[in-house]
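Aim 2 progress update. The chain analyzed this quarter is reproduced below.
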Amino acid sequence: MTANWAVATGHPIATEAAERILRAGGNAVDAGVAAGIALGVVQPDLVSVAGVAPIIMYDARSGEVTSQDGVGGWPAAANVERFHAQSGPHVPEGILRTVIPAAPASWIAALSRHGTLGFGDVAAAAVRAAREGFTVYPLFADFIASRAEKYARFASTADIFLPGGAPPKVGDLFVQSDLADTLQIMIDAEADCDGDRLAGLAAARHAFYEGPIAAEITAFHAANGGLLTAEDLAGYEVRQEPTLPVAFRGAEIHCCGAWCQGISMAQTLAMVEAARPDAASREGALDLHFLIEVLKRVFADREAYVTDPDYMHVPQEALVAPDFIAERLASIGPASDPLPDPGAVHNSDDAPVYRAGCADTSHVSVIDGAGNIFSATPSDPSYDTIVIPGTGLSVSSRGSQSRAVPGHLNALAPGKRPRLTPNPILGLKNGKPWLAMGTPGGDVQVQAMIQVLLNMTDLGMPAEAAVRAPRAASYSYPGSFAPHDIHPNKVLCEGDLDQARLADLAARGHDVVMWPAETWMAGGICLALRAEDGAVAVADPRRAGTAATGGTS
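Predicted structure tokens:
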């Protein structure tokens, strides 16, 4: 039997949730949403049920590619001058970095537009994992233990993540009863709609954004100096955004827009594709110097120009325009440029350009038997905010990616979306479904994905080898998360990278630092693709990801 569907996610329970939906006849969107909600339960250190959930999808019947931003804007009461006066240039940890939670609306919008099932159908695995608990695994235990002091700051957060006053240990059962109850409220609201799928999904959404869950969130904010109001939640709508298609190695890679790092992924692909055919590889391996210099320029341009597109001073298309790409490539030399200047966008207005002076995430990739593609990168941590008592929700702390600097391109403002790092992609070949991919890693996401793509396209590696191959990452740019640190010339490399390639980087002036070979650092790729001999799924095992394939004859 040839496999014709593939799933890869950041956790076995999420992969099993998606697999169960596909085997029962659901499509890629149903399965992807099931996995995405489950990730908010079984990776609550990295993903929030009330966090962000950017999604990119391909509809096999219509041939249409769509994306949803899945990120909320700042509350109406947000005031950058007040933030700056009270906390300086960075958005402080705690309740004040909360933006409008987008994930529930994003999941439900995807189901409504492209799915076939109801909220209760896809949320069942998540509710079960929350109520019955899941087994604590090493990465989760290490994450909580290494941030125990931060988790201990807020009583409602500590009650969940430091049970009995201590971090959970590997093998413990981690239970989230309040979170299970919150999801059940949404399921019960749907059940009152007598089987009308769309009405039921709307009712589940209403329960979160205008019903009892919203009331709990906004009451806590009102009592504790937060900014979220009932009006903020009730007025929130997920936005469908155009994708940025880039021709790359005979495929069409669709990236999200400038509301996230999608524009940076598109610019990276465009630069690599526009360079001479052999520019990205040398002596049978990736040319890391070339790639790192490309990425430095992409991130310099990101810092100078990229923000919520409603506030950008240049059209996002200018950053992938052929003339601009050629100018950026021409600035790359044989030695490391510690901190490149941004490129000159000729059709920008006179707004100032800002120079330089992590939290984490997860991913789900699904391709179903009909060829539908679902790629989503849900996120938002729990250590830097306050769990809303009685709900189990760490409401989106994505405000950490905004600046509390009046006049800054990414200064916070009412309704403005933080510049999001999660950026799922999908790919088509000859107009047919080929690939869904994404990764955790913050600023490393783009860097990890371009290396995996090139491993497959330029070096001819099978998918699993391409994902497992060691990677490197530049840090020569202002980080996306507060305090937005900059490390000129810094390159971190996974410990099993070839010594000759490391020596070449050092000789070219890069400041090379090693990660241990056994430690995941440069992304945790989740990849699903369709090959000539069937569907393939790979999840980086260093990040505890799992994958599954299956199908009918």
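The radius of gyration is 22 Å. The longest helix spans residues 288-305. These observations will guide the mutagenesis experiments scheduled for the next reporting period.
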